Amino acid sequence: MSATRDxxxxxxxxxxxxxxxxxxxxxxxxxxxxxxxxxxSRIAKMRNGPKLETIEALARxxxxxxxxxxxxxxxxxxxxxxxxxxxSGMRAREREAAIAAGSIGLLLSEWAExxxxxxxxxxxxxxxxxxxxxxxxxxxxxxxxxxxxxxTLKLLESRGVRTFSxxxxxxxxxxxxxxxxxxxxxxxxxxxxxxxxxxxGAHELGHLVLHRHRSLADTLxxxxxxxxxxxxxxxxxxxxxxxxxxxxIDAHAIIRAKARWGVSAMALARRCYTLERLTEWQYxxxxxxxxxxxxxxxxxxxxxxxxxxxWNKVFKALWAERMTKEDVARELAVPLDEVESLVFGLLKxxxxxxxxxxxxxxxxxx
Length: 366
Hints:
Layout: H1 12-22, H2 26-33, H3 37-44, H4 52-62, E1 83-84, H5 92-113, H6 131-141, H7 152-158, E2 162-166, E3 175-180, E4 183-189, H8 194-210, H9 223-235, H10 238-244, H11 251-257, H12 265-274, H13 280-292, H14 309-320, H15 325-332, H16 336-343
Parallel strand pairs: 2-4
Antiparallel strand pairs: 1-3, 3-4
Helix pairs in contact: 1-5, 2-3, 2-4, 6-9, 8-9, 12-13, 15-16
């Protein structure tokens, strides 16, 4: 196989993505591959085409199939077009790895769309509305009324958002989203509580509807605060919250009420404050008490985590045709762990999946 490779077809962008996904600096990669650090640096800077034996050594060190580096040019993401749920405390290497996961997600999405009828995008452009009103407008457009959204992930997928899970073993990478052409993409960190993921999804939805035509590096306005405001209003509609809260609100009342909207206790406390149902002193007191009971770092007695409707249907159909996740990885020429990390955080356990009687051809997952 090696003899048929033309090193001129080696794609340096794919090399960069594999490096970022593995989080390896040049010195460490060179050590693992048994090549010089200068060689790695020259390849990264697109100087001098590498020898085939060098590419093979790098592929082994990165644990990526050799074929990955010889496929067509891969789509890359610019940091300015990606909205992160939070940048606080995030290391540059973690951010780069997450963005590189976005490129692999684009590959998997393109592969799936060539085989299945996935939901078309239905995400309006609401950049001219303030975040609270945008949430109301979107609920009206989607005919949600003012009742709670019981399955946020299912709703996002039904409206054409391509959702993926993140494998980053850190709590510093929350979530991120971006547009690629007419398709919206969203990546969620499954290490967080289910309630946190719900808010993450709504927050990223806020970016998708409010900031599609804005550079996310824009510092003139607080885009993160706008997305937070949108998420709170979208998940906890003003009139529904006011109608279903008790007259006296404290930490215990918040804990009892939060399940209705599927949000964290802290998020509901903040919403009560912004709706002026709590004074600043009452809000601070409630937050201190909630923190004492473990609701700042976690969500005791939390809701069940939602699984993906779209990816479960896709993999049911593939399994019915005797196609495994290993086959998917092989067709994409990516490591198996990349496929698993992107979707298996969103899948039901395999023993809960029943094989359908029909094959994948022409299957609609709308």
